[in-house]
Amino acid sequence: MVRRPPPLKGEPPKAFRVARDLPLGRHPLLAAFPGLGELETAVRLAPDPAERVRLFDETCVEVIAEDAWMYIAPWEIPREARGRWKPVVTPRGSDCVVIGGSHLRESPALILFLDIFHELCHLLQRRGGRELWDSHYSYVERPTEVEAYRFVVDEARRLGVGDPVLRDYLKVEWIDEADFHRLLGAVGVSRG
User: What is the distance between the alpha carbons of residues 54 and 46, in angstroms, rounded to a whole number?
Assistant: First the structure.
């Protein structure tokens, strides 16, 4: 999923860190984002301490050369990806967030903060038995996407990020204008 980071105004929590020089390949999540599991956002995402430790200790990231943002490595290629996109696949039962190398190195810290927590929401959803690529829904109506976007919108608002910045963040190239407006409504961001 290729997208160019918009010039967002806003800052993640001061304790949010990114290892921007992490080489291509697979690494522990906390090698890419040291201390991530200690942030208040992590506690809100996974209130149970044991679940939180497991999430942050057992998840890896795979930094890839392709021009991409972030996504959860599926256990098998989703039907919607066949013929369009070749995602990194990870063994069943393992959790991996795939990150485009240029995204990790060049995107504003706020985007990386929102993106990694969006993807961690998806990991918790998958661990709970939910289907992340449910083809019965469009992208902007898929319950797992709406829930993950709502979480990061709420977190951004805690940081004082306003709707104009959130609109820029939510504008992704794989949805058209009508879907964009549906997504804004679904996550409670004004059209502007």
Answer: 10
Q: Quick one: which of 61, 55, 71 has its CA closest to 22?
A: 61
- Contacts of the segment 146-152: beta carbons below 8 A, 24+ positions apart: 146/183, 146/186, 146/187, 147/121, 148/118, 148/119, 148/121, 148/122, 149/118, 149/183, 149/186, 149/187, 150/186, 150/187, 150/188, 151/45, 151/117, 151/118, 151/121, 152/114, 152/115, 152/117, 152/118, 152/121
Convert the chain into a string of H (helix), E (strand) and C (coil): CCCCCCCCCCCCCCCCCCCCCCCCEEEEHHHHCCCHHHCHHHHHHCCCHHHHHHHHHHEEEEEECCCCCEEECCCCCCHHHCCCCCCCCCCCCCEEEEEEHHHHHHCCHHHHHHHHHHHHHHHHHHHCCCCCCCCCCCHHHCHHHHHHHHHHHHHHHHCCCCHHHHHHHHCCCCCCHHHHHHHHHHHCCCCC
Percentage of the chain with pLDDT > 70?
95
The per-residue pLDDT for range 95-139, each reduced to its tens digit, is 999 999 999 999 999 999 999 999 999 999 999 999 998 888 888
Angle at 166 (CA atoms; ends 55, 7), nearest 5 degrees: 100
Domain layout of the chain by residue ranges = 25-187
